[in-house]
């Protein structure tokens, strides 16, 4: 069952453009509610899944670096000590 709030948010999403989802570059302290709903609807993204997936991605990068993968080494050098929010912005950029 979907709440009325979620139904209203989905209705609002039908009329939005790419520019309505927050900045791609620069600081974005809090994503708009409709952007969070879009991620939930289209990507099945939740806070728990996002955290788990980022942890898995970082583990995969470390495994590939240990196996001698040069590209993984570059990714680890670039993002290994950066916050998850920066890695997410990189992954989401178009």
Automatic annotation (TrEMBL):
InterPro entries: CRAL/TRIO_N_dom_sf. Gene3D superfamilies: N-terminal domain of phosphatidylinositol transfer protein sec14p (1.10.8.20). Residues 7-22 have a biased composition (Basic and acidic residues). Residues 1-31 are annotated as: Disordered. This is Retinaldehyde binding protein 1a. It comes from Nothobranchius kadleci (African annual killifish). The gene is RLBP1A.
